[in-house]
């Protein structure tokens, strides 16, 4: 793996990447499914400042409108001792951390999509990945605007997310970029986005995540199509190496992506982080994070004993039967429903 140069103090992070740029001169060749997806990707572009109603105000003490049941320390002595202002501060910091990781992860996806354009050997994949580059830039833009204009608080990239991005970007093999980003990082993100879209009450947070998920549904389909064609060509040893990478990445995200820096920044005692790690709400949330990853890995053919043992150990094997196509269709439909709601509101406002 390549090295990671920590320059966050200057607002930058450098990752060495020994990538080889590959040209494909078979311009008239291409898989029909991928070319259709490319056409769809070009037609589904949107503008963050137009599609999202940024005039909507948020409650700074509860930015996404959650029930307090989702706060990991609710019903603990730490929570019970807090007044309303302190509890509002906790909610704001939790969401600032969550949306900051969304933003940083989307910039990682931006870099990975650009790398895929450069390194993937097939022209149809290059075409589609180019549409994903602009998608990811837009996602970084809208999450950044939400954080800086609405929540007005930002957290740095979680070190464990940074570690996975380092492994994903620094590997010279193009399919590892797909695996780390399209499958693991974006699979986790889709589950987190969906929780906000489906369960939060704040319309701005819900709309942003619904629109991002509409794009991500295409991205996941892209990864599935490309890897499903490629992985049958691998040797058993090559396939084992990729399964080991996925298992390590899944455990890393499950066990370490806990937001402990929130409790530190709020000045809460160290034992809060340990309590949160073992809390029931966190166990449930960590399981839900694998709702998309498990069926995707099964679909692309990385489904050997090592992967299955890991998912059995995590208690997430039931997700293997998830209907991915139905989930992606729902992601498309949910965004269209938000558009219809916005159009209705604008029509009512214009006629009143």
Structure description:
A hairpin with a 4-residue loop joins strand 1 and strand 2. This protein has 352 residues and is mainly α. The N and C termini lie far apart (61 Å). The chain has a single domain (30-347), classed as Ribonucleotide Reductase, subunit A, CATH 1.10.620.20. The chain is built from 15 helices and two strands. Strands 1-2 form a two-stranded antiparallel ribbon. It is globular. 38% of the residues are buried. Helix 4 (84-119) runs antiparallel to helix 5 and helix 6 (159-170) packs antiparallel against helix 7.
How would you describe the shape?
A: globular
Supply Rg: 20 Å
What's the average pLDDT?
91
Relative helix content: 55-70%
- Which range does the strand content fall in? under 5%
- SSE arrangement, N to C: EEHHHHHHHHHHHHHHH
Described by strand count, sense and barrel closure, the largest sheet is: 2 strands, antiparallel
CATH C-level: Mainly Alpha
CATH H-level superfamily title: Ribonucleotide Reductase, subunit A
How many domains in all?
1
**Spatial gap, N to C terminus:** 61 Å
Keywords, please?
mainly alpha, 352 residues, two-stranded antiparallel sheet, 2% strand, Ribonucleotide Reductase, subunit A, 68% helix, globular, 2 strands
Entry summary:
The protein has helices at residues 32-43, 48-51, 77-80, 84-119, 123-151, 159-170, 174-199, 203-230, 236-256, 260-265, 271-277, 280-288, 293-300, 305-314, 324-351, and strands at 4-7, 12-15.
Task: Chart the SSEs and their pairings.
Layout: E1 4-7, E2 12-15, H1 32-43, H2 48-51, H3 77-80, H4 84-119, H5 123-151, H6 159-170, H7 174-199, H8 203-230, H9 236-256, H10 260-265, H11 271-277, H12 280-288, H13 293-300, H14 305-314, H15 324-351
Antiparallel strand pairs: 1-2
Helix pairs in contact: 1-5, 1-8, 4-5, 4-6, 4-7, 5-8, 6-7, 7-8, 7-9, 8-15, 9-14
């Amino acid at each position: 793996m390549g090295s990671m140069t920590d320059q966050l103090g200057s607002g930058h992070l450098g990752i060495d990447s020994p990538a080889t740029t590959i040209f494909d001169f078979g311009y008239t060749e291409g898989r029909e499914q991928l070319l259709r997806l490319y056409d769809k990707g070009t037609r589904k572009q949107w503008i963050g400042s137009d599609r999202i109603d940024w005039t909507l105000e948020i409650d700074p003490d509860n930015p996404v409108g959650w029930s307090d049941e989702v706060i990991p320390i609710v019903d603990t002595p730490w929570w019970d001792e807090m007044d309303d202002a302190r509890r509002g501060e906790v909610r704001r910091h939790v969401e600032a951390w969550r949306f900051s990781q969304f933003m940083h992860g989307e910039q990682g996806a931006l870099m990975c999509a650009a790398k895929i354009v450069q390194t993937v050997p097939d022209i149809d994949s290059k075409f589609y990945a180019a549409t994903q580059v602009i998608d990811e830039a837009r996602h970084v833009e809208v999450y950044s605007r939400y954080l800086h204009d609405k929540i007005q608080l930002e957290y740095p990239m979680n070190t464990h997310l940074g570690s996975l991005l380092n492994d994903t970007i620094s590997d010279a093999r193009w399919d590892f970029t797909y695996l780390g980003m399209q499958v693991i990082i974006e699979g986790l993100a889709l589950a987190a986005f969906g929780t906000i879209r489906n369960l939060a009450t704040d319309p701005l947070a819900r709309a942003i995540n619904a629109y991002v998920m509409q794009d991500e549904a295409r991205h996941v389909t892209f990864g599935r199509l490309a890897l499903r064609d490629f992985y049958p060509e691998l040797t058993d040893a090559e396939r084992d190496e990729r399964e080991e990478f996925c298992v390590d990445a899944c455990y890393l995200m499950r066990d370490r992506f806990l937001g402990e820096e929130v409790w530190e920044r709020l000045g809460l005692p160290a034992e809060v982080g340990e309590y949160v790690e073992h809390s029931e709400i966190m166990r449930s949330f960590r399981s839900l994070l694998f709702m998309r990853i498990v069926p995707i890995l099964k679909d692309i053919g990385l489904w050997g004993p090592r992967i299955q043992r890991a998912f059995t150990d995590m208690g997430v094997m039931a997700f293997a039967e998830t209907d991915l196509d139905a989930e992606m269709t729902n992601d498309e439909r949910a965004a269209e429903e938000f558009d219809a709601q916005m159009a209705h509101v604008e029509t009512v406002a214009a006629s009143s």
